[in-house]
Specification:
homodimer; about 425 residues; alpha/beta; Aldehyde Dehydrogenase, Chain A, domain 1; Aldehyde Dehydrogenase, Chain A, domain 2; 7-stranded parallel beta sheet; 4-stranded parallel beta sheet; about 20% strand
């Protein structure tokens, strides 16, 4: 067999075991699933030393390979980070079970009772990069929502992921949840990703988590259903009717509060009517926060620190202390810029005009639109979801932060008493 | 340019016009959209002669090409069918507008108001076969749900579709809806289908409507999001605790009431405990209704009319007066058969046992499960949706009959007063 055939058959074998586990898992009660989550959390806490030791090996290899600081930081697990991961599972215990929820229901004129109820997808594949916390977060969220999970992490976190998954599976043996509800897909070569993405009929859904390169690869290769997450080229638009104090606070918060995440702002658009007043203020604030500005000629004219922006800047998700900035001559121009360059994640408008806010909201075509609030609020925890598997930037199924209900599908249950159609 | 490049650029040009139209359409009120639907309906009524005349040409060509009776019937438009199509648009006027509906909403602890509201997808592509009524139904449903539509029908209905689309577009010129909200994709060659299925960033969603070959092709070729519809290998399972009078009525209704559609039954599974009593009765009823039975050895032993079923029969969607039939020794065996051979559309159980019904419902993994009711009830009109674009057999986004709300996505609108994240 070729490497590709080997990967296909290895992944198919894992997926078949996932399907069997999913059948059992779908019928378990909330109490049974919560007991499993608690057992997993305790096992991770107890096994923290082994987890940190395995992680050390992964980190050393990455260092020897010349990985940058930011990458190493994502990869590294400390004892307190391990405890944080275990606590994440404990928080899932407190959340309501989405399975069995009646979404809609009615009794038809002929007496048929119809109910649309939430049921698990079945088998969910996760494809992600070098953040080992995703291994546990995703396993927990999938388990609570009744789905078996196939975890395909980065090969650079292979040792860490192996110990994490072994720890969780060992904990499951003491519970009603089959241990095959959580399985690790080998990460030694790329063929296993392709096999996972094309396992139609075996895998119900794949969710990629990572940078735009990973997301693009998954969307292009997958023949199983995919939910795109996380690429965020977010904009803040300062309208002609903006309160400029609020505008300044929102722009700075959107950019600097946590620049490495997908809901951080990447481009500032300022209406011409307030540009003369706002540009010097915002540039001073950016300077104070060490934000590098890639601006149009209006911004460049205001400060020698501003670099001239190119099309590449309008398209980029910096994920760092850099921002693109531009003056627009109307709300329509701001929206056109956002629709052309944005990724459909989050856009903010700062305005006191109801009509401007309304027009912006219905025109942007993004997962979330903020009116007088920071882009940083697009987040499952902030929205009160309690757990988040990612932020969907697609339009099908889920859009924006995805909590437990978004990890389910529905089925129609129709109950009659011998009803036939006339 | 090659044929493929020509098709790509032609479809891209159409899709860009659709996107412009979609922007306008997304902001229109229900009254403006309803006025457009009424104008389209009246134009179709008034233009019935030209529509029937164009259809006659398509039908003659199909006849000369040796098309079978069933195919010709789907293709043919009579004056009364044309009026029925126009009435379909008028019925859409009476349905509520899904756009702007607040799906969820709350005020967060920090005072932020979050609302999840329904918004249009944008541009929807329809790929379908030789039923010209789909041209108008799909255009109407897309328009009411605020989406621009690209219609790629069968080349065998090309003349009919051209007149239908010209009629609708001419009507739109008198309304607030841009005429490019409805566009026909040339059907002369297959390259335009591929171009539509791969127009990422231009087309938000493609819905195929047709036989299993079409659906499979669309799913495999598409890189834009797809909703699979309509392949229905539906099962009726007669449980050990079934009322056999109800069972007989439900089996016969599921099979014969309209055998050519996706929610008709294709396989009968009978529990061994009632087989001796039920098989002779159901075979007599099938004979009376001219249903050809492909049965296992138990059915074959009961009548010389029964042909021995092969794996091909378990897999087939007959769409005609044929049925596969088999004795099972447990509910679990029935479910295993359904999960192995079914298409995830609709399964029915006939039983008086609450626990059997519960187990069947949570185990089947299908879009709809009927308890003591005919499979024929899986239908948007029967469910009270008023209009149906198709029946989804996938798990993502929509499952089962898709009405107007299923033709929308959502966006999160977050309103603050200068809120920033701490």
């Amino acid at each position: 067999m070729s490497g590709e055939e080997l990967a296909n058959s290895a992944v198919a074998a894992l997926a078949l075991r996932s399907r069997e586990a999913a059948k059992v898992l779908a019928a378990l009660s909330r109490a049974e699933k919560d007991a499993a989550l608690s057992a997993m959390a305790n096992a991770i806490s107890e096994n923290a030393d082994a987890i940190v030791a395995a992680n050390k090996i992964d980190v050393e290899v990455a260092k020897a390979g010349g990985a940058i600081e930011q990458y190493l930081d994502r990869l590294t697990l400390t004892p307190s980070r391990v405890e944080g991961i275990a606590d994440g599972l404990r928080q899932l215990v407190d959340l309501p079970d989405p399975i069995g929820e009646v979404v809609r229901g009615s009794t038809l004129a002929n007496g048929l009772e119809i109910r649309q109820i939430r049921v698990p997808f079945g088998v969910v594949g996760m494809v992600y990069e070098a953040r080992p916390n995703v291994t546990v977060d995703a396993a927990g969220i999938c388990l609570k929502s009744g789905n078996a999970v196939l975890l395909r992490g980065s090969s650079s976190a292979a040792k860490t992921n192996e110990v994490l998954v072994e720890t969780m599976r060992a904990a499951l043996t003491q519970t009603r949840v089959p241990e095959d509800a959580i399985q690790l897909v080998p990460s030694q070569d790329r063929d296993t990703v392709t096999a996972l993405l094309t396992a139609r009929g075996l895998v119900d859904l794949v969710i990629p988590r990572g940078g735009s390169g990973l997301i693009k690869m998954v969307v292009e290769e997958a023949t199983v259903p995919v939910i795109e997450t996380g690429v965020g080229n977010c904009h803040v638009y300062i309208d002609a009717d903006a309160d400029l104090d609020k505008a300044l606070a929102i722009v700075i918060n959107s950019k600097v509060q946590r620049p490495s995440v997908c809901n951080a702002a990447e481009t500032l658009l300022v209406h011409e009517a307030v540009a003369a007043k706002f540009i010097p203020t915002v540039l001073a604030a950016f300077k104070e926060q060490n934000v590098l500005v890639h601006g149009d000629e209006n911004f460049a004219a205001a400060s020698g620190d501003v670099r001239i922006a190119t099309d590449d800047d309008w398209a980029r998700e910096y994920e760092s202390l850099e921002i693109a900035a531009k003056v627009v001559y109307s709300l329509e121009e701001a929206v056109a810029h956002i629709r052309k360059w944005g990724s459909g994640h989050t856009e903010a408008i700062v305005t006191d005009s109801i009509s401007a806010a309304h027009k912006f909201v219905i025109s942007c075509d993004s997962a979330a639109v903020m009116v007088n609030a920071s882009t940083r609020f697009t987040d499952g925890e902030q929205f009160g979801f309690g757990a988040e598997i990612g932020i969907s930037t697609q339009k099908l199924h889920a859009r924006g932060p995805m909590g437990l209900p978004e990890m389910t599908t529905t089925t129609w249950v129709v109950t009659g008493d011998g009803h036939i159609r006339a």
